[in-house]
Fold Rv3651-like N-terminal domain-containing protein.
Amino acid sequence: MPSDDWLLVETLIPGGEPTVVAAGAHPRHWSGLGSLRRVLGPSRARIATEAVRRCHAAGEPQRTVEADTVVVTEPVPCAYGGVHGVRLWAGSVDAPVPPPRRVAAWDWDADTELAHHGPGLEELVFARDPEQVRVIRTPPEAFGRMARFDGRIDYFAMVASIDDGGQWQGEVDMAGDDDEVRHFQMITRAVPAHRRISALMHAIPELDTAAPAADPDAAMLRAVSQSSGVGVGIIELTSALIYEWAGPPLPPLDRWLVERPVIAPDDLVALRAACHDLAGTPGAGRRLALRIRFAAADWITAQAELVAMSTGHGLLRVWSAGDGSPGRP
C-alpha cells in the first residue's frame, strides 16, 4: 500500500464481519480483513485488524504504535450513535500521516421511508451550510440531487428485498447546494434486523472521469415533468417508494417535496396494488385518489395517475382534487 493511502473498512452490519471497500480512492469489493495481510504484510495486518476492532467498539480515533509501525484509525459515525465505517492508515513511525479520506454515513428506515444522515454527511455530499443541515430527510431530498446513478436498478432491487439482506456499491454523482457536482463511492447494505439500508458515502474526486450512462426512462420522465403543470414523482414499483420529484408538487401538495405525508391506509394499499399490477406492463396506467395528511394539517385528497416504465420504475403524477373534501382514512 502506498504510504499516502488510507483504507476504508465498512462495518455496516451490527455484529457482522468488517470488510475493506476502498484503498485510497479506489473501490474494493467487500474484502475481509484477512486481505490486509497481502496489503500490509502479516505483522502490520495483525496490528491494523486489532486497531479496527478497537476503533469500532470505542467509536473514537485510535493511534497504535508497535516497534516501527504506527496504525491510525478514525470512525465514521452514523445518526444512531453507532459506527458504520473505520478509516485505517498504517505506516512507519517516522512517516507523516496524510489527511484521512472524506467519508460520512446515512441510514434509510424502510418502515418510515425516511433517511437519517450521520455527522458531516450533508456538508460532504451537498456542500450544505451548517445552519441548513438536518438529520432526517425524505428520499426525494437525497435522490433528487443525483446527477448520475448508473446502478439505480440494482440498488432498488436490494431495497425491495430488504428482508433478504444484500449489498450494493457503486459510483454516483451528487449535485450540491452550490450547484457543483461531486463524485462518490456509495457503499450500502440491507440490515434486515433493523429494516434499514445502511450506507457510507466516500468522496472520490480523483475518479470523476466516467461519462454518465444513458438512462432513457429517467430522461423522459424529467422531460415530461418540465411542462406537465402537476407534481411528477419517480416511483419504484416493487416498494411503491417515491424517491425523486422530477417536477415539484403544487400547493396544497407542495410539502410532499420535503415531507413524507401519511397516506390513508386503504389508499396506500390501493397504490401498492397498482404498482404491483403495473410492474409487468410497461406503458400501462391507472388513476387513483390518495388521501394524504402532512404533520399538523388536515387530510387532503390528491388525484394521482400512475404509469409504469420499462425498468421497474414508474411515473406518478399528482395534483389536488380541488374539492376541499379531505375524506376519511
About this structure: The CA atoms of residues 145 and 230 lie 20 Å apart. The radius of gyration is 22 Å.
